[in-house]
Amino acid sequence: MISLHAPASNHIRNLYSYRLSAYLCAMETFFSHYLLFLADTVTIVVALLIVAGGITAIAMSRRKNPTSGQVQVSDLRKQLEQSSENVQQYRLDKKALKVHQKALKKDRKDKAKDPVTESCTYLLDFKGDIRASAVSALREEISAIIQASKPGDTVLLRLESGGGMVNTYGLAAAQILRLRAAKIHVTALVDAVAASGGYMMAVTADRIVASPFALIGSIGVVAQIPNFHRWLQDRNIDWEQFTAGKFKRTVTLFGENTDSGRAKLREELEETHALFREFVQQYRPHLELEQVATGEAWLGSKALQLGLVDQLATSDEIILEAAQKGKVLTLHYQRQKTFPQRLGLAAQQSWDKLWQTPH
């Protein structure tokens, strides 16, 4: 009896064990999939909360302080004098240093007894990206100077830009013209590059000083755009674009560009170039535009020969000369930025660096 039923009993036990293993395996699979789904859901929710929080923070910061910021001022002449004194302490022996410090103290006392109203030089910096986004700070700095300046005060503008969007660089140039309208002499200092929109800004100054190897000029206009129409066609993807007005769009990224659209864009470029030429001629009437308004850029020494600049020197030389004659104040408008704004600015600057070339 036992021998006859033992195989059946073992078979039942094996079958039960197999079903139990299958059940446990199925439950394990279910829970693993559920946990993955839960993790994905949590990730998406957290990401949405972060985005929503960032947008809310930006909106609140703008609502709270829509124009929060201030012009920070530092006395550059004092900084230069302090740097010189630090060097003298190591350069001179003790006896000579004592004599030097005594003479310096006497000079300061004499100036205090007979105070003379010195002229002031204001130093501004403009480092331009494609969108000329630094114009938002420049306009605040210039407004402060116009309100505080006295007759005889001057402005030094350290300018570095390879150009970019016509409208924003036109606005930046107009800011410099505000100084000229207020009868404040402006000198543009170019150490590295003032091309295209950067040169548009430079010509509005009373004087342009460039270093010998600075890149100057590029009085021209360029537009370039890739077109993915054939790539989309190969993948049977249609691109629909709806406009009102014959030339609302001339050329597009994804649509099929037409000869008439291309011709219209070239016409617009020629019109913009003509305006650029007229603007340059207005403020530097001695230039031979047929020779220099070709879109080319030249190094500083050649630019001097062509009349694009007035003097070859570095900004450091000009600033030191100004500090020997009077007070030099550095102005910098600083706006408090939230973390999302700083993150967005860093991303924009990285993108601009990829595309920043003289136009």
Task: Give the key terms.
57% helix, Peptidase_S49_N_proteobac, single chain, transmembrane helix, disordered N terminus, seven-stranded mixed sheet, three-stranded mixed sheet, alpha/beta, 359 residues, hydrolase
Largest sheet: 7 strands, mixed
- What is the overall number of helices? 12
Helicity range: 55-70%
- Gyration radius, to the nearest Å? 34 Å
Structural class, by secondary structure, is alpha/beta
**SSE run:** HEHHEHEHEEHEEHHHEHEHEH
Strand content: 5-15%
The largest sheet has its strands arranged as 1-10-2-3-4-6-9
Mean pLDDT: 85
Spatial gap, N to C terminus: 101 Å
**In terms of per-residue confidence, which ranges show pLDDT below 50 for 5 or more consecutive residues?**
1-5
Q: In one word, what is the shape? A: flat
* Strands, count: 10
Overview of this protein structure:
The protein is of the alpha/beta class. It has helices spanning 2-64, 76-91, 94-113, 135-148, 166-181, 197-202, 229-234, 259-283, 289-292, 300-306, 315-325, 339-355, and strands spanning 70-75, 120-127, 154-160, 185-190, 193-195, 207-210, 215-217, 297-299, 311-312, 327-334. It has a seven-stranded mixed beta sheet with strand order 1-10-2-3-4-6-9. α5 (166-181) links the parallel β3 and β4 (185-190). α4 packs parallel to α5. The radius of gyration is 34 Å and the shape is flat. The termini are far apart. The model is unreliable at 1-5 (pLDDT under 50).
